[in-house]
Amino acid sequence: MTKLAQWLWGLALLGSTWAALTMGALGLELPSSCREVLWSLPAYLLVSAGCYALGTVGYRVATFHDCEDAARELQGQIQEARADLARRGMRF
Amino acid sequence: MATGTDQVVGLGLVAVSLIIFTYYTVWVILLPFIDSQHVIHKYFLPQAYAVAIPLAAGLLLLLFVGVFITYVMLKNQKVTKKAQ
């Protein structure tokens, strides 16, 4: 099964469980505070997924290693390439 | 480790995401179980906003992305028309 199929399957399962619980199809009598939490659960999962994504991006940005040598070597190669192409007649 | 502004921006993003996550968790998960006379309810909007605000923000984001894509596509079309 492809990853997309797995994700859709999981989402369909969660969605149907949530729908069944909110519409009382299973015949359970949940206290009103539980019902309130259940009602906002999809929005909560979305917001927490977004927060997790944002936090991971921020963490990776903060811990990314700088490579000084590679940067200098790259700049040198860029200068060489510009000089070479300018010699062959290309204008920047 | 990354230097200077990279670190500040990264850690800032982490902090913002943690703040939003804790506030939203307390709002959605903990508040319904707390007695409605407790003083903490003063710091949170009514529960209905807990679903409305992320929904509105999501729709706004989709709108922004759609407008951006339209703008880029129109600009591309104009460039190809001028090149012909």
TrEMBL record, chain A:
Domain of life of the source: Eukaryota
Signal peptide location: 1-19
GO-annotated molecular function: enzyme activator activity; glycosyltransferase activity
InterPro entries xref list: DPM3
Location(s), subcellular: Endoplasmic reticulum membrane
Transmembrane segments: 43-62
Keywords from the UniProt entry: Endoplasmic reticulum, Glycosyltransferase, Membrane, Signal, Transferase, Transmembrane, Transmembrane helix
GO terms for biological process, alphabetical: dolichol phosphate mannose biosynthetic process; GPI anchor biosynthetic process
Major subcellular site: endoplasmic reticulum
Topological category with respect to the lipid bilayer: Multi-pass membrane protein
Keyword rRNA-binding listed: no
Pathway entry: Protein modification; protein glycosylation
Family: Belongs to the DPM3 family.
Family matches, as PANTHER family: DOLICHOL-PHOSPHATE MANNOSYLTRANSFERASE SUBUNIT 3
Known function: Stabilizer subunit of the dolichol-phosphate mannose (DPM) synthase complex; tethers catalytic subunit to the ER.
Assembly mode: Component of the dolichol-phosphate mannose (DPM) synthase complex.
Protein name stated in the entry: Dolichol-phosphate mannosyltransferase subunit 3
Automatic annotation (TrEMBL), chain B:
One GO cellular component, as annotated: glycosylphosphatidylinositol-N-acetylglucosaminyltransferase (GPI-GnT) complex
Sorted UniProt keywords: Endoplasmic reticulum, Membrane, Transmembrane, Transmembrane helix
Superkingdom to which the source organism belongs: Eukaryota
UniProt subcellular location: Endoplasmic reticulum membrane
GO MF annotations, alphabetized: enzyme activator activity
Entry membrane topology: Multi-pass membrane protein
Gene Ontology biological-process entries: dolichol phosphate mannose biosynthetic process; GPI anchor biosynthetic process
Pathway: Protein modification; protein glycosylation
Ranges annotated as spanning the membrane: 12-34, 49-74
Family stated for the protein in its record: Belongs to the DPM2 family.
Subunit: Component of the dolichol-phosphate mannose (DPM) synthase complex composed of DPM1, DPM2 and DPM3; in the complex interacts directly with DPM3. Component of the glycosylphosphatidylinositol-N-acetylglucosaminyltransferase (GPI-GnT) complex composed at least by PIGA, PIGC, PIGH, PIGP, PIGQ, PIGY and DPM2. Interacts with PIGA, PIGC and PIGQ.
Function in brief: Regulates the biosynthesis of dolichol phosphate-mannose. Regulatory subunit of the dolichol-phosphate mannose (DPM) synthase complex; essential for the ER localization and stable expression of DPM1. Part of the glycosylphosphatidylinositol-N-acetylglucosaminyltransferase (GPI-GnT) complex that catalyzes the transfer of N-acetylglucosamine from UDP-N-acetylglucosamine to phosphatidylinositol and participates in the first step of GPI biosynthesis. May act by regulating the GPI-GNT complex. Regulatory subunit of the dolichol-phosphate mannose (DPM) synthase complex; essential for the ER localization.
Name of the protein: Dolichol phosphate-mannose biosynthesis regulatory protein
Originating species: Physeter macrocephalus (Sperm whale)
Source taxonomy: Eukaryota, Metazoa, Chordata, Craniata, Vertebrata
Gene: DPM2
